[in-house]
UniProtKB/TrEMBL annotation:
CDD domains xrefs: TRX_family
Species assigned in the record: Micromonospora echinofusca
Residue span(s) of domain Thioredoxin: 8-148
Signal peptide segment: none
Name the UniProt record assigns to this protein: Thioredoxin
Family classification: Belongs to the thioredoxin family.
Domain of life: Bacteria
Protein's UniProt keywords contain DNA damage: no
Family annotation (InterPro entries): Thioredoxin-like_sf, Thioredoxin_domain
Amino acid sequence: MTGLAVVLGVLALATVLGLWRRRRDGRIRPVPGTTTVGVPADATGATPSSALAALGVPAGAVTLVQFSSAYCAPCRTTRRILTEIEDRTGGVRVVEIDVEQHLDVVRELDVWRTPTVLVVDATGRVVQRVSGVPGRDDLVRAIRPLLVGVPS
């Protein structure tokens, strides 16, 4: 009887963890220190990342930075979504970073899984992040307020 209770407990825990991960996967989250529309909440908000600038994240454009790896199947789907957004939306750039070649940046930016997408505003601040495959429409809605005043 104890064995059955243990098995049922493990199954219940696994179900709860699976549902929690599914709920978080692909969800766009604001980075602490910013408001939900990506504008710094105050002068102590997120600061521009020098690591991203060194990797070629352009200044003056809203940039979607994708962290991926060679063997990541969801990364291919994410790449397709981000490329489509870049092609259809003026003022948006996409930069893809291989996590295996840039472990220092991965650690600095607290990237734990691939794909992870960071939304970087025109001033170079990371304002939002997505772990997992983002929804195209959700991502477009999230970056639209950041595009005000950004040249196409």
